[in-house]
Design brief:
The structure is a homodimer of 340-residue chains. Chain A has 340 residues and is α/β, with parallel strands linked by helices. In chain A, 30% of the residues lie in helices and 24% in strands. Chain A has twelve helices and 18 strands. The longest helix of chain A has 13 residues. Chain A is globular, with a radius of gyration of 20 Å. Strand 15 of chain A pairs antiparallel with strand 15 of chain B, so a sheet runs across the interface.
């Protein structure tokens, strides 16, 4: 539960139960803390009752409602960071984050993902069974399919990464690092990571980044131009969400290039309108429909071609979650896995 | 020449001549006034010496430099609204508006298009010969290939118009009207024109618009939603450039949709960042590389499948150009053709 900025508490809440016939009840086996959880951790107003929190988890199905047909009791499943019915026009188009019956964990009467059990609405549309046991060594990488790996992949798709393209990734958090993996996987020729944390940018290089730019703002723009024969990159993955980072993303894009933004925007407007227009640079992106990407990315995880689980550099038990938030917020940890 | 807001004058300037070996000298036979010429006409500070103006013209080639090989003396040619070398990487990619040697009419020592003759830099890259004579009845439609028809087409491509899609066009000026033609040509199923000038929206309907929305702002958003089963349109062609029109464009886009903007942006930021993000709506566009589209669109003009020349509702001689600006600025005329 989060009760306000910096105030994460472990509390006993009513047991999750099946409410609707399309629900499943999932006993969480692993979960994690997201960079986007740090926004309320930094800024939420104090609240007496507090809110649930967490939106990434893997778990065992313990019960299903009468209308659930695909998901079975005993399945080990991964949940995307939003739930979706799997049947509406947007789900059919692969944009489950705009599902007409969809929604988000830890909102309304829906459980948060950082807890022992979760009632999952629209279980057949939402959950994806895993073909391995809960003690499998690949569990950290499979857990990233619930958000950060699919989110990095989304940024790369929106930024139109393709074989031979020059790519920049703005932000060296877990999503940015997964963006590097996604860009490499899609065939990028050059991958520039913009970040200033050596431990993170080193990992980015192991994932396939060819260049590191530690500068920010106009210095970063100049440095990227130097690295790209003066023209900028075809594709920019914006994995921060601040005005400055979006403006940098637009400025380092090559004419005709594309910015795929997945960092939750903290401002009401997109800066750099005239710059983007002059260069015919498009700005797209949003909440990643990770549900659409799980089946595509999972074989690469299972066969060891990508290792997004390496973004986890700390594993904790449930009672250490408050300290896990502190560690991520203090940049002591890139991403924290909660092992139940 | 423009000397300031509202101050257009006919003046005698030095004769256009060949300066570089890649130049051509074109005697203008027809030109026109653009909606974007109205921005300086509304707001330019008074200037003693004045600036050239105009960027859309057709004319006869009277002389060519020593390195011009494709364009011949006597050719009737259409000029795109920018010049480009035709050989750089951006020209090869079809983004001639970012040509490394390119530029704009009426800037620096480059002549404006609203004049009797123009020195054309990079003639082989810039000009496209027309297979008809200067008195051909199709001349108005061919003249739109210099800007507005190609610009509407660009908006439609960036907005990802395709067969069966729902489309909205924001703005009922000449570019918006050509956007309707482009959307229809690309197979759109529904085309909603947002505009409040009955004469213009009627023409839009003749061009293929299926619905007219005269409201603005949130009322326009509501009306478009009513017309689209509540979801909005797949593709929005933004043909105005004001903050309000861009925000409307984002709000009427369906989740996962695309906004193609070709209205020159009048503000430094793009509003509606969070709305666009939430719905995964992309915002792209910029100066249209009309040079890339002339060969594709010309057969449709020559064979009568599209009639973009109908956006011209007034034809004047050179000495009436000041009044032509006034008429367009007062919305008496949609677009004014100058017959030399």
């Amino acid at each position: 539960m989060i009760h306000g900025a910096g105030d994460i508490r472990i509390e006993t809440v009513p047991d999750a139960t099946i409410k609707d016939a399309t629900d499943a009840l999932v006993k969480v086996t692993s979960a994690c803390i997201c960079g986007s959880d740090l926004w309320p951790y930094k800024s939420m107003e104090a609240s007496e009752h507090g809110n649930r929190i967490g939106h990434e988890f893997i778990g065992l199905v313990e019960a299903v409602g009468g209308e659930v047909t695909k998901i079975k009791i005993g399945d080990l499943v991964v949940a995307p960071f939003g739930y979706s019915d799997g049947t509406c026009e947007f789900c059919h188009e692969g944009l489950q984050t705009s599902c007409v019956h969809g929604g988000w964990w830890a909102t309304g009467d829906v459980d948060g993902g950082q807890g022992e059990a979760v009632r999952v609405p629209w279980a057949d549309g939402t959950l994806v069974p895993l073909p391995v046991g809960e003690d499998d060594a690949l569990m950290p990488s499979l857990l990233t399919l619930s958000d950060v790996m699919g989110t990095g992949h989304h940024a790369a798709l929106v930024a139109r990464v393709a074989p031979g393209k020059r790519v920049a990734v703005v932000g060296d958090g877990a999503v940015g690092l997964c963006g590097v993996i996604a860009a490499k996987r899609l065939g990028a020729e050059q991958i520039i990571i913009l970040g200033r944390h050596p431990q993170r940018t080193s990992l980015a290089q192991e994932f396939g980044a060819t260049d590191v730019v530690a500068e920010r703002g106009d210095e970063a723009v100049e440095r990227v131009r130097e690295l790209t024969d003066g023209s900028g990159v075809h594709s920019v993955l914006e994995c921060v969400g601040l005005g400055e980072s979006i403006e940098t993303a637009i400025k380092i894009a090559r004419p005709g290039g594309a910015v795929g933004r997945v960092g939750v925007p903290q401002d009401a407007a997109i800066p750099g309108s005239r710059q983007a227009f002059r260069s015919n640079v498009s700005v797209g992106g949003g909440p990643a429909p990770v549900r659409a990407y799980i089946e595509e990315l999972m074989p690469d995880v299972l066969e060891g071609r990508i290792e997004p689980g390496r973004v986890f550099d700390r594993t904790i038990a449930l009672d250490a979650v408050p300290d896990g938030y502190r560690a991520m917020n203090d940049r002591e940890a890139i991403k924290v896995l909660i092992d139940f």
